[in-house]
Design goal:
- By secondary structure, this protein is of the alpha/beta class.
- The chain has eight helices and five strands.
- It has helices at 21-28, 40-52, 60-76, 90-104, 122-127, 153-160, 175-185, 192-195, and strands spanning 8-12, 32-35, 80-83, 110-113, 165-168.
- Strands 1-2-3-5-4 form a five-stranded parallel beta sheet, with helices on both faces.
- The longest helix has 17 residues, at 60-76.
Length: 196
């Protein structure tokens, strides 16, 4: 170990969690703010929102409430933000953050992690007779969203590329924190003891 210390503040654990955590963590002093917004039910709610408006499908309050309140401080203090608030439309979430930054007169590098949307694979999966995990039922004819759980590596790569804010869609809950640790400490993908 190098003795290096990284402070990571978990600012939310679900969509609808209190918005007071992020400002409190900023005041306490952190290097990273991480936000977890997604659950399976949340994904279907966001997919329904995107179905009504293609500019939606992400946790809008992450941008309009939380980031609106803290973005200037995040930039001024060089704090990095990682969030899966992108839901089923991470590019729209990132664009909303960029628009907010322009409105507030701050420059910030925003990265988007893509690859979780497997809707284009629906026919191929049906052809391979992929079934629902618990019930064994075949995939339904109509699916509103289908997403794979991404890991921490794309988050690490976005941070390695210099992103100050990383927006993902569906990822494993630990990815928002583990990606920061992999980036900061140079942990390899096969360094299982540290990754665990």
């Amino acid at each position: 170990m190098t003795g290096k210390v990284i402070r990571i503040g978990g600012a939310s654990g679900f969509w609808g969690d209190s918005s007071v955590g992020a400002p409190q963590l900023l005041a306490a002093g952190v290097d990273y703010l991480v936000f977890d917004y997604l659950a399976e039910l949340t994904m279907s709610i966001l997919a329904a929102a995107r179905g009504k408006n293609p500019e939606l499908g992400y946790a809008t309050d992450f941008v309009t409430v939380t980031m609106k309140a803290i973005l200037k401080d995040v930039v001024a203090k060089s704090i990095r933000v990682i969030s899966n608030a992108g839901g089923v439309n991470p590019q729209a979430c990132a664009q909303a953050i960029r628009a907010l930054a322009a409105e507030q007169g701050v420059a910030v590098k925003v990265a988007v992690v893509l690859g979780d949307d497997v809707m284009p694979l629906g026919d191929a999966l049906r052809g391979e007779e992929v079934r629902e995990l618990q019930s064994g039922a075949p995939l339904p004819a109509k699916v509103v969203t289908a997403n794979a759980y991404l890991g921490a590596l794309p988050v690490k790569r976005a941070l390695d590329a210099g992103a100050q804010i990383v927006i993902t869609g569906r990822c494993v809950d630990s990815a928002v924190t583990l990606g920061a640790l992999m980036h900061e400490f140079g942990w390899a993908v096969d360094d299982y003891v540290r990754l665990a």
